[in-house]
Write a structure and sequence with these properties.
single chain; alpha/beta; Aspartate Aminotransferase, domain 1; Aspartate Aminotransferase, domain 2; 13 helices; binds pyridoxal-5'-phosphate; AON_synthase_class-II; PyrdxlP-dep_Trfase_small; biotin biosynthesis
């Protein structure tokens, strides 16, 4: 399938509404963003040539980092090659053999890998289970160096971390708090993330986010106090030992951030559409779990049921992904809808009617 990030795909000569990407704001094809990226490629070439600490630096990176820090209200920010590399880098820089890292069981794989590489003790708590977390914190009361890391929005369930309770527990136990805003950046909190939406930004020590999702580009940021960012800059192996992003990517990210700042309510509008769709799905008898975001899982249970539903929706002009184990727990195969702010009401109506027909089809088989 071509044009994989576009809102509309052509498949077998048919037009499909694409609800299978993380391009939540449609920025990857925005003309101003594409212009900025192509201008940078023409003027500065296709590659940066080296790591930032060698010769791969340019004023563009620093300009983007200053802009991100000002957007998030942190002292400092660092741009790293990808979200995966960013999680490995900050965890490697801040955690070691004497650290205990508390981590939600459904955290992204890059967090799991980052903890393992850091050699810290990995303590996983049940998904969003604050009672379990409190018990584990109590059990490790005497450990000096403690970090808690969680996704703010979970990618397969579309639910949110209970950040208020997490902040309270971290303060009570003297734990450094890191938040991976990969699926919230650009959308929640006028684009700043879930922490800002809940008024808790200052209680989060490390804000991490990707430019590869709602920003429509590539790369990631770590934003924090200047001393923390300096540690990641000096010791983060995914930063130090990897070639910096091409100038065109940085310029595209900069233009995307400009759009996000200029349109602070896009994310809220998107979340409103998701709420409207969840209500319709619920009335049709579909289960959307704990979804509160633009990511809506529709739980199907068996793999073959999820695949049948995906194929049926394709015939109605809606493309969604069918997510199966081992990506999700056994018996929880699901459709994953990621709604986008560049959808218009007509598109939303198409999705509603496609699911209405799917519900009828399923009933006729029962
Ligand atoms: C996608 C994602 C990442 C990795 O980001 P990339 O830029 O794709 O490497 C990290 N954390 C979470 C929660 C993600 O969803």
């Amino acid at each position: 399938m071509e044009d994989g990030a576009d809102l509309r795909l052509r498949f077998d000569g048919k037009e499909l509404l694409n609800l299978a990407t993380n391009n939540y704001l449609g920025l990857s094809t925005h003309p101003a963003v594409c212009d900025a990226a192509s201008r940078a490629a023409r003027e500065q070439g296709t590659g940066s040539g080296a790591s930032r600490i060698v010769t791969g630096n340019s004023s563009l990176y620093e300009k983007l980092e200053r802009e991100i820090a000002s957007f998030l209200g942190t002292e400092s920010a660092l741009v790293i090659g990808s979200g995966y590399a960013a999680n490995l880098s900050w965890l490697g820089a801040l955690a070691g053999r004497n650290t205990v890292v508390f981590s939600d069981r459904l955290n992204h794989a890059s967090i799991v890998d980052g903890i393992q590489l850091s050699r810290a003790k990995h303590v996983r708590y049940r998904h969003c289970d604050m009672k379990h977390l409190a018990d584990l914190l109590e059990k490790h009361r005497d450990v000096e160096q403690k970090i808690l890391v969680t996704d703010s929005v979970f990618s397969m369930d579309g639910d949110c971390a209970p950040l208020r309770e997490i902040v309270d527990l971290c303060e009570e136990h003297g734990v450094l708090l890191a938040l991976d805003e990969a699926h919230a950046s650009g959308i929640w909190g006028e684009g700043r993330g879930l922490a800002h939406a809940l008024g808790l930004a200052d209680a989060v020590d490390i804000h991490m986010g990707t430019m590869s999702k709602a920003w429509g580009g590539y790369g990631a940021y770590v934003a924090a106090r200047a001393d923390i960012v300096a540690l990641v800059r000096n010791r983060g192996r995914g930063f130090v030992f990897s070639t910096s992003l091409p100038p065109s990517v940085i310029a595209g990210n900069f233009a995307a951030l400009f759009r996000i700042r200029q349109n602070p309510n896009e994310g809220q509008r998107l979340l409103g559409m998701a709420q409207e769709l969840r209500e319709v799905l619920g009335k049709l008898g579909f289960e959307t779990g704990g979804s509160e975001t633009q990511i809506i899982p529709v739980l199907m249970g068996r793999n073959e049921d999820a695949l049948f539903a995906r194929d049926f929706l394709l015939t109605k002009g809606v493309f969604v992904s069918a997510i199966r184990p081992p990506t999700v727990p056994a018996g929880t195969a699901r459709l994953r809808l990621s709604l986008r702010a560049d959808m218009v009401q007509e598109d939303l109506e198409l999705v509603k009617s496609a699911f209405t027909e799917l519900a009828k089809e399923i009933q006729s088989h029962e």
